[in-house]
Amino acid sequence: MIKQTKKYFGFVFSTLLITFTSSVFAKNIDEQVSSLLKDQAALASGEKNYGIYCAACHKKDLSGAVGFNLKDSEWVHGDSAEAVFNNISNGFAQAGMPGFGTMLSEEQRKEIVAFIFSKREGMANIEYKIYQPSQYPNYSFADLAKATPTKQGKSTDNLIHFELAETKEYAIVVTADVYAPNDKDAMLFAKPGPFSQFEVLVDGEPVKMQGGWDRFWQLKKGYQHLTFKMMLPKAPYNELTQTNLDLRVMTPDEAINFFPVSKKAETIINQLEFNIIADKKVVVQRKKVADLPAYSISVGFPSKLNYAFNTKTCSVVGVWKGDFLNVGPNIIERGKSSSLPIGSWVFKSPQVIGSQQAEDCLFTKYHKTDQPTFYFNLNGVDLSLTVKTVNAGLIEFEYQVINAHGNALLALDLPELANSKVAVSANNQSIAADKINLAKTKTFTVTISGI
Length: 451
What we know:
The protein is α+β, with helices and mostly antiparallel strands. The chain contains eight helices and 26 strands. It folds into three domains: about 1-120, Cytochrome Bc1 Complex, Chain D, domain 2 (Orthogonal Bundle); about 120-270, Jelly Rolls (Sandwich); about 275-450, no CATH class. A seven-stranded antiparallel beta sheet has the order 18-19-20-21-26-23-24, with no helix packed on it. Strands 2-1-3-9-5-6 form a six-stranded antiparallel beta sheet, with no helix packed on it. Strands 12, 13, 14, 15, 16 and 17 form a six-stranded antiparallel beta sheet that branches.
């Protein structure tokens, strides 16, 4: 009996030790990854190794291909730093993902996790509490502090489900972790209809509500903790009042949807897909495009290389590789939202081929052909631009001088590309981009190769 007792306590102690060790390890991973998120050298190292070992299946921009999307709200195998670290280390043999525990050091795997987390966008750890009117007699959020919710729980899909209230009159308090873009301004956006009340806190601090019919709250960049409170008006209320809220994170101008916050918003955003593919011939579109300045004309080629010419600056303001454009958001939102390039950027504004100075440009016209041509006046010189794609890795911008006055010199701005080569030539010879004599040079070409 004594031996059995010792054996039992030994088993319990071993189990507790393993559990304690695992929890300490998990905590250490979470803390270390949080620290690495502030270390630019570690993030650069993580990005490099991600590109070598992960990008082939999860894509360079983390949006997913054979493997899952790694920057949205849906995490099938856990979204903690420990879970992602273990997934990288052990892999999923049945799904064709090898474990990298023996290929990469522990530090390298942590750096990859940190890089992935630095690009993450979406929601996590959503908890909700729903209240009925009898629990807030003064129709005040202060009432909720001492009330017991009629329903509460956690989201299983990292989205808010307002339909869980099941009534036309209710109040809801939601807390969540939000991963907003690190490099762009973002707003929490809602279309609630009239008279609903709101309180929004970011990292415990109240955020001022903006807008009128539509409501906006400014978010921080990157990770933050969100508290969202909504109280519907007393029934009967205006028929336009929304009980199931379209809640999403967008750019301040509503041009780009970063990610849905509510289930209703996800449903709406998923309907915003209408792809235009330049599969057989060149396609020209005059629509607002995300990440490109206004007054840009987009051109798509069957070679899967596309570009945009801006009529205000007479410059090429973007080149991307892919299936051209998803114009769904632009159509459904009646021009308010931007079309989305399909694929990956080679470069985009503020990098350009041309001149950054809008006052130097006077756009004239363009012709839709198999090789569209743009006509414009730049610095008093009449020029045309025709673009050719030789193959999926090379694009040529051919400038023709139509009318030059005196010794007109052109300083051409060019993009700086890490993985592709940019060259300027005339008469089969390289020339300097910042001193092109348009009186003597009647034709010159900018070539981007190795795309």
